[in-house]
Amino acid sequence: MKRSGFGLLQALMVIILVSTILMIAMKYATVSVKQTKDIYIKESAELFMNSAVELTLLAISGYQRNNTTGCLSDVNITSPDKRFLADVNITDYYLLKDSNDSILCKKGSGYRVHDIQTQESQGMVMLEVTVETNATHPKNKGISIKLTKRTMQRP
Known about the structure:
It is built from 2 helices and 5 strands; from the N terminus they run αββαβββ. It is of the alpha+beta class. It is rod-shaped and about 105 Å long.
């Protein structure tokens, strides 16, 4: 009389099948976690970039222009948790022709000064902002993001 049920061979096949399915599921879960982490760090870097632009505008507003240094040409910012580094270059100033600001800024270097005729555009600046992840930070291990943005702003 035969007994019904699984044999040893069928039990091993079921175990191999289930373990293969679980390995594939773990692989996709690992990829999903990495993608989520990358997206989170990229969005954090974009938010830090916006903050860097605002801090640069604040620095331009508070900068004392003089005959030797001219106008502010660049600003370097590190996030409070040291995860991101921002390098903001001020490439162009748009200032009223023959104004005090225009005369002082022309004595500096690292940027261009454009003489304009309209009061509404006085003080506009062109910024090149680059944000990078800090490779030495433990939370950024294995993730390298570099974002660049050009923007025209008015301090």
